[in-house]
Amino acid sequence: MATLECNITLKENYKSTSNPVRPYVKFPPSIWGDRLMSLTFDHSESHAYAIAMEQPKEELKSLIINPNMDSNEKLRLINSVYRLGLRYLFEEQIECQLDKLFTKLKMEDYDKADLYTISINFQVFRQHGYKLSCDVFNKFKDSSSGKFKEYITADVRGMLNLYEATQMCMREESILDEAMAFTEAQLMGVVDTLEGNLLQQVKHALRSPSHRGVQMVETRLYFSNYKEECSRYDSLLNLANAHFNYLQLLHKEELSTFIKWVKDMDFQKITPYARDRTPELYLWAVGIFLEPHYSQARIIISKMAQLVLVLDDIYDAYGTIEELRLLTDAINRWEISAMEQLPEYIKPLYKIILNELTEVEKQVPKEGRENRVKASKQAFQELARGYHQEAEWRYSKYVPSYQEYMKNGLITSTYNVFSTYSLMNMDEINSEEALGWYKTHPNILEATKLLGRLYNDVTTFQFEGERAQEVESVHTYMKTFGLPENVAVKELKKMIENAWKDINNECLKSTEVSMALLVPVLNLARITDMVYRYNDRFTFPEETTVEYVTLLVITSVPMY
Ligand SMILES: CC(C)=CCC/C(C)=C/COP(=O)(O)OP(=O)(O)O
Ligand SMILES: [Mg+2]
């Protein structure tokens, strides 16, 4: 693959202790140049969009609760609201409507409904945590052959929505596994014969199904590709339009703030060995939180991700083992005097790490502030120890067992850090309850960490090759279970799919914790899918990642 050609060599840069041997990696440079240096945003424009949202928002509220609207029509409207990223504006109304509709639902209601209608129903209920049974799709299967009925293949819109619906499957839902493979193959077979919006819809779904995509990107593409759905109601169209413009200005401002911080901290100079991926990191932050009121959270998460990125590249691409031992110790100590023990080149970075958390502390919600910050710091320290463990294994040429590797690999997935930093910024959450929940190692978080670690390794083990020295899941799995590479990869990919099923299961309505707490974790799984589905789109961001960042902060929003 041409994009994966990066100069990864074990270079002997230096010979003596003062000139140490470094596992030096030359990552591809940033591809942005000065393109994002002059993002403009105007606060009065932003205010105008906020005002423009008010009336359509009220109109849409009335529409959603309208008792005379046909239930399938209502679910279709709620689907559009969800896919346009507007759900947070109508949380109460939607929940009340879905509660009513779901309670009175009978399987017979679906006897006469077509594939499209049932698939939309299924998506809406599952998106909002209601477990509509997958048996609703049984009628599309031929009971004697066990295959899907031929006639549904002519209904491309129905097939597309069945494909989208299958992404919400859980374990033991074999009809959805079959439907996913069937619809994917069928859609791939017809995509070249399609045109207009339907072509765009199918093309994008095959590349990234909506449920597994970065939601801000998905909503923006829905607005472009689903013109019919968006313009069904004037209020929906007007609200979506003003909302996108409003968000785009906000995102431009946030990205500018983050770019300025990276520049002010002088990362290019102090960490020249690390990947330079500022807008790509910001995309992670937008992926975790979409709503405008998380503006500060996105900036804080972007900064933290920059620190994690640099740390990752020191630990597995630049530092010597002696330096890494000192760095880990200093991060564990977490006090400015520990800087003395560090090599000169790491000192400025260490200072930023400590300073940033102190700065952040001033900005996080008052409720449980101390504990929120403490948990984030501990997660960061745990990550450094996890990176260090990997480095020690590589240094001593020890290949751990798969289980040993994964115990540490769940930590180096970085998702404990991302989750605690997300939580740190959520003022609607009771921190004590949330931190207590984290400590129980909830299934959704464990599944997301597993997905993150495995997806990353399965996609990158070949080009990380010599550098990783088999300290990754593919080789440890091959060795532990005595399997050839292709079988190991296949089994790990199956585990990734199962992790998705577990995540979906955990997103069903639960009384255990607030649903709001699950969202950033689900969103981490989605970003992982976007980044690692085909290759490492973070290290090699050309095409998709660049396209997405451009779409969010550069391309203007279409008017119908
Ligand atoms: C999740 C995010 C945005 C974190 C910051 C950047 C990062 C560590 C990316 C993964 O790099 P990698 O592929 O080199 O990871 P690893 O070294 O763990 O395989
Ligand atoms: Mg790495």
UniProtKB/TrEMBL annotation:
<dbReference type="Pfam" id="PF01397">
    <property type="entry name" value="Terpene_synth"/>
</dbReference>
<dbReference type="Pfam" id="PF03936">
    <property type="entry name" value="Terpene_synth_C"/>
</dbReference>
<dbReference type="InterPro" id="IPR005630">
    <property type="entry name" value="Terpene_synthase_metal-bd"/>
</dbReference>
<feature type="domain" description="Terpene synthase N-terminal">
    <location>
        <begin position="31"/>
        <end position="206"/>
    </location>
</feature>
<dbReference type="GO" id="GO:0016102">
    <property type="term" value="P:diterpenoid biosynthetic process"/>
</dbReference>
<dbReference type="InterPro" id="IPR050148">
    <property type="entry name" value="Terpene_synthase-like"/>
</dbReference>
<comment type="function">
    <text>Involved in sesquiterpene lactone biosynthesis. Produces exclusively (+)-germacrene A.</text>
</comment>
<dbReference type="InterPro" id="IPR036965">
    <property type="entry name" value="Terpene_synth_N_sf"/>
</dbReference>
<dbReference type="InterPro" id="IPR044814">
    <property type="entry name" value="Terpene_cyclase_plant_C1"/>
</dbReference>
<dbReference type="InterPro" id="IPR001906">
    <property type="entry name" value="Terpene_synth_N"/>
</dbReference>
<dbReference type="InterPro" id="IPR008930">
    <property type="entry name" value="Terpenoid_cyclase/PrenylTrfase"/>
</dbReference>
<dbReference type="InterPro" id="IPR034741">
    <property type="entry name" value="Terpene_cyclase-like_1_C"/>
</dbReference>
<dbReference type="GO" id="GO:0034005">
    <property type="term" value="F:germacrene-A synthase activity"/>
</dbReference>
<dbReference type="GO" id="GO:0000287">
    <property type="term" value="F:magnesium ion binding"/>
</dbReference>
<keyword id="KW-0479">Metal-binding</keyword>
<dbReference type="InterPro" id="IPR008949">
    <property type="entry name" value="Isoprenoid_synthase_dom_sf"/>
</dbReference>
<feature type="domain" description="Terpene synthase metal-binding">
    <location>
        <begin position="263"/>
        <end position="502"/>
    </location>
</feature>
<protein>
    <recommendedName>
        <fullName>Germacrene A synthase</fullName>
    </recommendedName>
</protein>
